[in-house]
Write a structure and sequence with these properties.
This protein has 4 helices and 4 strands. It is of the alpha+beta class.
Length: about 80
């Protein structure tokens, strides 16, 4: 996985209800629309993300999502 894909994955973990192509999401996480368009299919094929009922992308594994958000540290919960 590339650094850009990881950045997108972390952004989705932090804001699963914010549309990934919205200007707010792209500017908040300093992501380019073209990069997001390329990265989404790859992350989906890896079964790391999926669309929720609202058609927004979310991280599939809740523990992995929390880890991406920085909730877990090497000593447990923050």
């Amino acid at each position: 996985m590339t650094l850009k894909q990881t950045s997108l994955l972390k952004a989705i973990a932090n804001d699963p209800f914010l549309p990934v192509f919205s200007s707010e999401f792209l500017s908040k996480y300093r992501l380019a629309q073209g990069m997001v368009q390329k990265a989404l299919p790859k992350l989906s094929r890896l079964d790391l993300i999926e669309k929720n009922e609202e058609k927004n992308w979310q991280v599939v594994d809740p523990v992995f999502k929390d880890w991406l958000k920085g909730i877990y540290t090497s000593k447990g919960h923050k």
